[in-house]
Structures are given as structure tokens and as C-alpha cells.
Amino acid sequence: MPASPAPAATDDGLPAGRTATVTAVGHFLPERCLTNADLEGMVDTSDEWIQKRTGIRERRILRDPEKATSYMATRAAEELLDKRGLAAEELDAIVVGTVTPDMFYPSTACLVQDELGATGAFGYDVSAACSGFLYALGAGAGHVASGQCEKVLVIGADKMSSIVDYTDRSTCILFGDGAGAVLLEPSRDGHGLRDMHQRVDGSEWENLCQPGGGSRQPPTHQSLDRRDHFLKQNGRPVFKQAVQRMAEASLTVMQRNDLTPEDVDYLVPHQANRRIIEATAHQMGLPLEKAMMNIGEYGNTTAATLPLCLHDWEADLRKGDRLILTTFGGGYTWGAGLLTWAYDGTEGHAAGEQEEASAGR
Ligand code: UT7
User: For this structure, is 130 an active site residue?
Assistant: First the structure.
């Protein structure tokens, strides 16, 4: 699905249609750090095994039981608004990717809207597991590209510690808590979300799921005894599919945009396992240095991995950089998007100025 209407080319070869571009990034990470050494004291595992098999050294955990996903999402949004110099009232929409909403309903987006005071916004959550942010980005970009919205807040946030079983060594070592956010605004010089390829395949849903608590298996004493309200994963098939699908989706986006590996400045991959990222980059023909990787510090934060990468690399990004974002998660859900970056460094980007400049060209 092209993210914007069929574009006419401008002098610089970029499409002239209305695209949605990222104009600011925000993030939130809880202070409490859960190290591999801490986990050694909780389950039968070792720092050596975890680092060798996953690349993870530590992860952040939101310990305060009073605080949930909306708390982290709101902090990330506040940082972003502050950087961009915007009031919350100026937001038109809030789209939150998460599988750990504060509650089934109202959506996390409603709670973020209220806490921010975003009185002019509508909003909703996107449930696509680890692909939640990418799917939310596609939806948010659609609201901007169609002309419906001028300012859309897209958030990826998960309190994975609320659904991780800390007696299951095969999953509890993987996940952490966190939130990241981007602001989407219209751009007329072609920078922004240029392409998006998304797929789901529900035929192997049992390999990665949280079976209890929904309408199929409402919570009962028995379901609690079976620990069905925790995340379950069959790691090996998920690993294999993750590499295959992320590489496939990324190559699809590269091919239909005539991009060689040299044309791609950064790979922004979902952070599930260092070995998955290495294999994906290899299959795309990219050197590993082009892959953003912070899994060592945060683990797998599910919907937050992509925006946390954008936050951590924001200072290095330059206007015009071509980023391939790619994810794979429970469902299965997966996809890849092409995003050209719209500003230099951490200053944020004045989309209005960009539009005026391109209009006067
Ligand atoms: O974000 C959503 C998508 N999720 C993913 O992409 C995750 C994909 N899967 C993975 O990253 C990997 O499959 C894991 C990291 C989850 C597991 O790594 P693996 O290399 O696939 O290990 P495995 O499940 O095949 O297990 C190998 C051995 C087993 O022991 P035996 O049966 O060979 O004696 C496990 O019991 O490692 C054992 N093991 C552990 N040992 C120490 C599993 N977990 C641990 C552990 N510490 N934490």
C-alpha cells in the first residue's frame, strides 16, 4: 500500500503529493533496571546464555503497580510536544500501538488524550503485537496524507512486565517496558512515509499469544492456575518466521522503490533478538552498522522498539536519510516501511517552514 496518493515527481526526484512526515520524537523508559544477573536469581538461566542467544544485557521495568502503559505513553508524548513546541490542544489524533493497554476499554489513546489535555483529538489503539507501532504509523500517516489531520501523535508503548511470566525462563529474559512516540505532520517535499508493506497470517497464532482473559477464555480460577493470562511463546518457529518475513518485507519495499543496499541509510528493525537483526540485515545485503540496535539495554519492548530506536539515533539522522522500518510479531503480524527523514539532529522539524520553502521553489 503506498502511504500517499500517487505522487508526481519534483525537480529533486521526490514525490510532490501530500505525505506524512515525522517532525519530532519522544520517549520514556522506567528507571528500574532488571539485569541478567537479577534474572539468574529468579529462574534457571545465566548471563552468558541470555547474551549469546539474544544479545540482551538488561531491560527496564515499570515497578510502580499504580502506573501502566498510558503513563509511559503520556510521558513520551509530553517529551515530544515539548521538543516540537506544541500544545496538546493542537493534536488532531492519537494512535497507540500496544498489547498491554491499561484495560480492554477505554483505549489507551483515550487515557493519553485525557492526561495530555488533547481536547481537539480523536484516538484509538492498534493491536498488532510487536508490529503495533509500524501499523499505527501507517494508520496515522493515512490520516495525514488524506488531508483529514494536520498533527497526529503515534505512540508505541508496552508494559510487558504486566503479562510476562517470571517463572518461565524462555520468555521472562526477553521483554522490557518502555514507550516511544513520533509526531506526523504533512510534508510537501516528499520526505516522510513513502511506502508501506504489511501482512498478517493467523494460522500459527498459538506460537505467540496471551491465551486467557479475552472472550474466548474469560478469566476463571482455572485459567489463572494455568497461568493463561501470561504471554506464551514457542520461540524457534517464531525466530524462523521473524527473519524470513522481516527480510522479505524489507526487500519488497526496497525493490519497488528501486533502492539498492547502498541507498538505504538505516535499518530500523524490531528488537526481538540480536541474531534475528543480524540475519535480516544480512539477507537485505546491508552491513550490520546500518542496523539500529539497542536490544542490549532495553530487551524487547514490543510496540516501543521502533520509536525507541528513532529516539536513540535521532541525533545522528540527517534530512533525506532513507530508513527501512521492519517488524514481526504475534499474530503473526509483520511489515516494512520506507521513511525518509525530514530534519537534522535533535532539534525537531518545522513542517510549516518546509512547506513554505517548497511552495516558493
Ligand atoms: O517479538 C516477537 C517475536 N519474538 C521473537 O522474534 C522471538 C524469537 N525467538 C527467539 O528469539 C529464540 O527462539 C529464543 C531466544 C526465545 C530462544 O532461543 P533458542 O536458541 O531458540 O533456544 P531454544 O528455545 O531452542 O532452547 C534451546 C535450549 C533448551 O534446552 P534444551 O532443550 O536444548 O536442553 C531450552 O530449554 O535452551 C534452553 N533455554 C534456556 N537456557 C538458559 C531456554 N531458555 C533459556 C534460558 N536460559 N533463559
Answer: yes
